[in-house]
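FAQ: What does a multi-protein file look like?

Like this. Sequence, then C-alpha cells, then the next protein.
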Amino acid sequence: MNENILIIGDQNKQGSDLRDVLKKEAHFIARLIPMNGLAANEIIEKEPDLIVMNPKSSYLEIMDVYYGIKKESRTEDIPIVVMMDEAEMKHADLPSGVHEVLYRPLRPAEAVVRIKNLLKRVHKVDQKNLIQRGKLTIDVSKYEVRVGEKKIDLTFTEFELLKFLCSHSGTVFTREVLLNKVWGYEYYGGTRTVDVHIRRLRSKIEGKSSTFIETVRNIGYKFISEE
C-alpha cells in the first residue's frame, strides 16, 4: 500500500506530526501544504488518494476549501478527513462528505489505524454502490441492507440513518447533527426521534453476536465496524 496522502493546513504542529507518522509507520506518501489561497487544480496536480484537512482552530475555517474540492468532478470522490478538537465535535455540523475525524491533540497510532481503515472501506465501495462493514452490506442503488445472507427490511428513514452512520464509521455524531443530516433542516421534532429510530434500527440489524451502533454517553451515537 503506497497511498498518496495530502494534508491541507500547516498552521499547527499536528499536521507535521501526522505527516511524519504516516511516512514512518504506514510508509505512505504524505505531503503538507498550506491552506491559504489553495485552488482545486493544485490538489488535482498532486493526485491524492486521501485528503486530511487541518484547520488552525475551528473546522469552519476549511469549509471553503472543502466545497471547492467537492464541486470539481476530478476531486469530488476523494475521501476527506478533518482534524478537530474533541470538544468541538459536540457542536460540529460536518458535511456528509467528511469520511472521518481525527481528534486533536493527535494520537499518532490511532490516526494511522483510522486512515488505513478508511482507505480499506473506500476501496470496498464498488461501482454498484455497495458499502460493506463486516457482516453488514448496504446496496445504495437498490435500498437494500443485509446482515450476512439475511435481508433486513428498513423504513426509508432507518435506511438513511444507517447509511449515514455507516459512511462515517467510527465518528461520533450528536442527536442534533443526526437530525440535521438525516431528517433535514425542516424537521422540527425533538432529539428523542433519533433515539427511537436508533433503537428500532438496532433491533433489526443487531443480535447476540453483532453490534454495529454504539451509544457514546452524553454525546450521541457512532457506527462501529466488526472488521
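And here is the next protein:
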Amino acid sequence: MAKILICDDEKGLRAVLKRYAIFEGHEVREASDGMEAVEICKNEMFDIIIMDIMMPELDGFSAVKKIRETSDTPVLMLSARGEEYDKILGFEIGIDDYVVKPFSSKEIMMRINAILRRTRKSTEIDNKDSTHTVFQKEGLVVDLTAYKVLIDGILINMAPKEYDLLFFLIRNKNIAVPREKILEEVWGFDYFGDDRTLDTHIKLLRKSLGPYAKFIVTLRGLGYRFEG
C-alpha cells in the first residue's frame, strides 16, 4: 500500500483517480491547487504525488519546486499540453513521469505502480550496498553512494532521474544496453513506457555532463552504451 497525494483543480478527475487508487489498496489525500499541496506536504509524507500543471493559486511546476526544497517524493505530472518544452521543464525540476491528458485511469495506475516499484527497488539496493562506489574518468567523478557528480572538480546538481539514469549506465559501462532494458530498470516499465521519456532524459543528462557527454554513445536501433 502507498500513500498518494492527488493535486488537481478538477474535482471529478480527483474523484476518479482516488477511486481507482483506493481500489488497489492505496491511501489517498487530495489537494485542489498547488498551494494546498505544498502546505499538506509540510506536515505529511507521501510515497508519490500526482500533480496537475495548470491550476489556480500556484501552478504545478511552482508547487513541485517548493516541495522539492524539503522532499524527494516521486512526482507524476499531469498536463493538457504535450509540448517538449513542458516535459523538459518538468524533468529538470525533478518529476519522475509526465502524462498528457486525456488519459485512462488504468494508464495512470500502471505508471504509479511502475514508479513505486522503481523507488522501492532503489531503496532496497541502497540499503544492501554498504560500500562506497566512485567512478572516475578524465574530469568526470561520479560518487554513486553519496549521489554526487563533479565536472572538472565542480559539483553539479541534476534532476533525480538524471542521477538514476547515469548511475545505471555507469554500472553497465561498456555494455550495449537496449532502450527497453533502461526503461525497465530505471523507470520500472516493462511492456509499458514511452521511448520519448528516455530520449528527453538522455538529452538532459548530456547537457548536465557537458564535455563528458561524449561517454554516452547512441546505438541506433538498439539503445545506449556508456564508455567506461
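Q: Is there any per-entry metadata?
A: Some entries carry free-text notes. For the entry above: Helices lie at 11-23, 34-43, 60-68, 84-92, 105-128, 160-171, 179-187, 195-209.
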